[in-house]
Amino acid sequence: MLPHEREMVKRLTGKPFVLLGINSDESRSALKKILEDEQITWPNIYNGPPGTPGSIAARWNVHGWPTIYVLDHEGRIRHRRLRDEALEKAVVELVEKVPK
């Protein structure tokens, strides 16, 4: 999954697109190591350790990792649980619909 996400981020550079990670690793230092080891260059937000009350994951009803939401340019959820080519196809279709 990560190799495809890396390529998608490169292909969509300069387009109205953001890939954003929300991570629930044990610590910020653990997250930093994962980002470096996996060459993750897109923005990531530290959610706090698993089970953190009031966290982003709790508000978005995330119970497993990864959970993927595709939002349109107005912030509406358009897709859930897509991966690889299906994810990119959905993203590209939404990017093409963004008003110029």
Per-chain topology:
Layout: H1 2-11, E1 21-23, H2 28-37, E2 44-46, H3 56-59, E3 69-71, E4 77-80, H4 84-96
Parallel strand pairs: 1-2
Antiparallel strand pairs: 3-4
How would you describe the overall organization of this protein?
There is one protein chain. With 100 residues, the protein is α+β, with helices and mostly antiparallel strands. Helix content is 37%, strand content 13%. The chain has a single domain (2-94), classed as 3-Layer(aba) Sandwich (Glutaredoxin), CATH 3.40.30. It has helices spanning 2-11, 28-37, 56-59, 84-96, and strands at residues 21-23, 44-46, 69-71, 77-80. It has a two-stranded parallel sheet with strand order 1-2. Strands 3-4 form a two-stranded antiparallel ribbon. Strand 3 and strand 4 (77-80) form a beta hairpin. The protein is globular and about 40 Å long. The model has no long low-confidence stretch (mean pLDDT 92).
Defining key terms:
Glutaredoxin, 100 residues, globular, 13% strand, alpha+beta
Indicate the CATH architecture: 3-Layer(aba) Sandwich
The helix content is 25-40%
Kindly report the average pLDDT value: 92
Helix-strand pattern, N to C?
A: HEHEHEEH
CATH class: Alpha Beta
CATH homologous group name: Glutaredoxin
Low-confidence stretches: none
Number of helix segments? 4
Oligomer: single chain
Separation of the first and last Cα atoms? 30 Å
Shape: globular
Strand content: 5-15%
Number of domains: 1
Biggest sheet architecture? 2 strands, parallel
CATH fold-level topology: Glutaredoxin
Strand order of the largest sheet: 1-2
